[in-house]
Amino acid sequence: MLRVVVCVSGGGTNLQAVIDGVESGAIHNTQIVRVISNNKNAYALERAAEHKIDAVCVSPRDYAERADFNAALLEAVKEAEPDLIVLAGFLVAIPPAMIAAYPKKIINIHPSLIPSFCGVGYYGLKVHEAALARGVKYTGATVHYVDEGTDTGPIILQKPVEVLPGDTPKILQQRVMEQAEWVILPEAIDMIATEKRSK
Ligand code: GAR
Prior knowledge:
This protein is α/β, with parallel strands linked by helices. A seven-stranded mixed beta sheet has the order 3-2-1-4-5-6-7, with helices on both faces. The structure holds glycinamide ribonucleotide (GAR). Glycinamide ribonucleotide (GAR) binds next to helix 1, strand 5 and helix 6.
């Protein structure tokens, strides 16, 4: 069984896609053992509770020093004894100690075709604003391993999505989620779970 911790900051639609994948059996041999949010108001926490998944909030607001928050975050991850950590809209810089503790065991979903529109400052709607400003005809999403850089780790899966006339950042964001993110994130987890079983 692949033990997965999912880290979230907001609405949690990608978390929902993973929960649905596990419950439907599309993601094999996998259990979501904990959801961690840095934001106590994240709707993602309610999604976890609805599905009886252990959910905790570790907020930087509760710590005077960033180092203490980083340590608490790592502790919350370690307690759950994960085989895989999934960043599903987790808008926190991953502490280097966590990357060192889980090499090739952290994956991230990013809402563009890396290496376009990624790196520091590119997250959420900003990614889609930049894609529309550049006038690309296709964008998409990427699942990649997390290394010390921002969106620089090895790519696992990508899926292109067409940009259409009249798109606004929000319309494009929704299409990228529906046609790419909610498809490739569960797929990548299933690939990793299947690989683990065959070892
Ligand atoms: C998703 O579009 C995800 O790709 C993006 O945040 C959104 C979270 O939505 N992540 C990044 O931009 C990371 N750089 P969700 O909470 O509904 O899954």
